[in-house]
Amino acid sequence: MLDLGNSFLGSVERKPDALAFVDGPVRLTYAQAYERISALVAGFDDLGLMPGDHLVTVLQNRYEAALLHWACQFAGIVITPLNWRAKADEIDFGIENSEAKAIVFEDVSADATRLSSEAQARKCIALDGAIPGETTFDSLIDRKARPVEPRVSADAWSIMLYTSGTTAKPKGVPRRQRAERAAALAHVAQNLYGTGECTLGVMPLYHTMGVRSLLAMSLINGTFVCLPRFDIATALKLIEQERVTNLYLVPTLYHDIIHDERFGTFDVSSVRKLGFAGAPMTDGLLKELTAIFKPELFVNHYGSSEVYTFTIDQNAPNKPGSAGRAGINQRIRVVKLGSGSPDDLADIDEEGEIIALLLGDESFEGYWRRPDANEKSIRKGWYFTGDTGYFDKDGDLFVTGRVDDMIITGGENVSPVEIESCLSLHPGVSEVAVVGLPDERWGKIVAAFIKRRGNVQDAELDQFCRTSGLANFKRPRRYIFVNDIPKSPVGKLLRRKLVAGEFETEEQSRTKGNAA
Question: What phi, psi does 419 have (nearest 5°)?
């Protein structure tokens, strides 16, 4: 298989004048991007960076971040992106754990980087406003350099993403160039991307969804339109201005875009293909997006940083909740909960743990320096995802949540996702999250946290659940009305915060306002 450097060169040679990156006033063709990538690799040489070294980045989705990603592929450097909101101790961990030789940062992450003792012991590259002792990004890229040739094979490490840590330190997920390219090819095929498509580059480049969009566009001489951080008005403006053809977002961003009061004032008719991943999409949101965009293709993509694609459903609205069937590079099973064997299969409609075969071209090979995590997650060549789900009689997979999120109430297993999808269909519900809260009698009770649209009350929602066909034991026993549902920077629902009481009710917010 081609390494990623040769893959990019193929795109440069096919269509050198095709538009590769847009970032505000910056517009780079593939040929222009290649010139800057060559300069960056020469800059890496001056810094003494070698193939196999790790380069930490703490950047938003700027064109410089995209160029750095590609320069690392040519040079054989392992790009190791961290969340640009990372604090100093989180940067310390990422640098120390990866044994990084250098770090690149910008204004928004400068304070945390300069407070990081590990960063100060490395080569520091500043995109904006370097101080003495730091290297400026401009000094690396503003030079004439010979066209760079790829220095490593497809077996070289490409990137190391960190999984989001909840109760423990994040786990490094190193991935080889061949796995990254295979994942990008599958993404193109499964989303039916055509030559010269244009995508909104808003999913962060420290997240697998952002990286996949970046690589997929390169394969088809497509355009990656940078949106440094999510902003609804800017997103809508870019979709209209750049004639974006496909969107690949988490459900939360779709929700926020179409429910913004400014949505109807922008022309989004260029968008023909929708894709989502990172979290389930409620039935209500699926219906709204279908009615608004009338997409040619609406893909539910279920995967992870470890194994990019598990399953694909190319007609998500046709069977709400279904994650479809195994992707073109994958085999999937559902095994009985608590089973350590990939051969202990769950029955049809029986909820179990979803596992994926690690022989797939997109798969990782194990966590970085975490034999304990490998022992827990990798068994007999299969990756135990920690996700729960089941196959229906048609052979379609339904993802019901995380093993740790399962609510056991009165001895019954209850999936929060099913209840969330039900409640999302009520017109008075803007957003919903369901968790299990401790209860002396039941062990846990089902609690629904609701962000309201209007003045809907508990009794009305309870009646809605009763008439929807939701089993009686699954009905929420408590409704809590909140101003916001806690989410991660990439829009993933943070149930643990709700369980821990880290939320503000509508009543608490009103009390604060009155006191002020």
Answer: -70, -40
Q: Which two tokens stand for residue 35?
A: 């010139």
The secondary element (H helix, E strand) that includes residue 352 is strand 352-357
Calculate mean pLDDT across residues 62-88: 97
Which of the four pLDDT bands, split at 50, 70 and 90, describes residue 190?
Answer: very high
For 436-453, the pLDDT digits (tens) are: 998 877 778 999 999 999
If 0-12 CB within 10 Å is exposed, 13-18 middle and 19+ buried, where does residue 513 land?
Answer: exposed
Cβ atoms of 470 and 448 closer than 8 Å: no
Evaluate if residue 277 carries a pLDDT over 80. Answer: yes
Q: Looking at residue 408, what is its pLDDT?
A: 77
Q: What is the pLDDT of residue 296?
A: 97
> How confident is the model over 374-388, as pLDDT tens digits?
999 999 999 999 999
Angle ∠(404,414,344) on CA atoms, nearest 5: 65
314: DSSP letter: T
In tens, the pLDDT along 3-24 reads 999 999 999 999 999 999 999 9
Q: What would the 3-class secondary structure string for 120-144 be?
A: HCCEEEECCCCCCCCEEHHHHHCCC
Asked if 28 and 21 count as a contact pair (C-beta separation under 8 A), the reply is: yes
Region of 192 on the Ramachandran plot (φ > 0 left; ψ -120 to 50 alpha; else beta): left
User: Which residues make beta-bridge pairs with 226?
Assistant: 201
Kind of pairing between the strands at 478-481 and 443-452:
parallel
Domains of the chain in sequence order: 4-314+326-330 (3.40.50.12780), 331-403 (2.30.38.10), 406-515 (3.30.300.30)
pLDDT, residue 516, reads 58
Check: CB of residue 311 under 8 Å from CB of residue 332: yes
Q: What is the reported pLDDT for 168?
A: 64
**Residue-level pLDDT at 166:** 45
- Using CA atoms, how far residue 357 sits from 10, 186, 308, 415, 513, in Å, is 31, 16, 12, 25, 53
CB atoms within 10 A of CB 359: 11
Cβ-based neighbours of 495, under 8 Å, separated by 6 or more: 405, 416, 433, 435
- Kindly provide the residue ranges of all beta strands, DSSP E only, lying in 163-238, ordered along the sequence: 172-176, 198-201, 223-226
